Amino acid sequence: MLELKQQGLIKGTFEKQKGGRGRPKKVYQVVERKEPENDKPQSIDKQGSQAQKPAKQGMKHFRQNNKPSLMKYTGGGWL
User: Fold this and answer.
1) Strand, helix or coil for residue 2
2) Are 14 and 25 in contact (CB under 8 A)?
3) Are strands 26-30 and 10-14 parallel, antiparallel or unpaired?
4) pLDDT bracket for residue 28 (50, 70, 90)
5) 8, 30, 70, 79: which is deepest, by most CB within 10 A?
6) What distance in Å separates the CA atoms of residue 22 and residue 34, rounded to the nearest whole number?
7) CA–CA dist 22, 33 (Å, integer)
């Protein structure tokens, strides 16, 4: 029990008793480790590498990243 406490896997807490007589009951709570989760689905192309779809990005981000290539097609002016 002591080893688990030192590793941070459990937490010891006291339970509130009705009536207030005697010693409160000790309850152990299991601490869950939260790992970062990747909520965004990623697409994989035929070669197996990960690729981002432009539709998944915001339009502002898409325009900033592709500004030089868009300028070629619009004749140098920005939309």
Assistant:
1) helix
2) yes
3) antiparallel
4) confident
5) 70
6) 36
7) 34
